[in-house]
Design goal:
2 domains; about 300 residues; mainly alpha; transmembrane
Length: about 300
Amino acid sequence: MDADWPLIAIRFALYGTLSGLFGLSAFSLFGLKAGERADALALRPWLVGSGLLGLLFSGIALALLAAAMAGAPAWPIDREAIGMLLTGSATGAAWEARMVALVVASVLALIAAGRVVPLGLIAFAAGIALATLAWTGHGAMDDGAIGWVHLVADVLHLLAGGAWVGALLGLMLLATRPVSRVNEAHLRLTHRALHGFGTVGTILVGTIVVTGLVNGWLLVGPGNLPKLAVTLYGQFLIAKLTLFGAMLALASLNRFRLTPAFERSIEAADHRGALGALRRSLAVEAACAVMILALVAWLGTLEPPASGM
């Protein structure tokens, strides 16, 4: 089967944009203090931009998905197919919920992005928007009790992954601030955010691992494990797990070696080398995250082994 490149591309764009919106707003809540958010991250343009892009990409995704389900070309837009998708499916209802959530998140971000209550509401709305992607993938393929278990696991997997991706974005914005705007206060803020993410990151990793095992059991099944390496789905899944392992290794390096070294360099007033090492590590970790999102976008268009059982 030929790859549906436009659909894969828009799925990738949605995963990245909505993960950034949810994760960055959540990171700003737990990683930064109220008076630091607007200046440290330029939060408003990032959140408003992500929300508006999420709306745009969601509109394109709806047209592509409706065309794929109707077996019609993406252009001209098949309004009848879109109407049927919106009124007669859980996917359509999820899309409508996503659009409402993104409008709410974008408006709140435009009005008061740095304040605690609006930021909490932005994170909540963005979480809803991100969670709706579960209805566009394999999480909605099962019925009954198993279907609910699969859907809940997929939603939690999306939220934990999105929180990690958004936190990486926030940490990179802090660590890569222009030299002319870096002072000791910003360096200490960056260290505190890096150190504070250690506990939250552990929770996120645990959630990703547990929900990933549930999804793997339902999508692959233990009987299909020996055949993974000879199927495209299996090869992509192995690549995803390898990249996830690399992210874990880099996160551990950051937490136990680079962040303490960065703290010592601040005290010694010689932070350039330690900060450069952190930047490189975060950049590689972010690159791994981008590749994982691309694989997830493609995996969602492939038939998993368990569906053929």
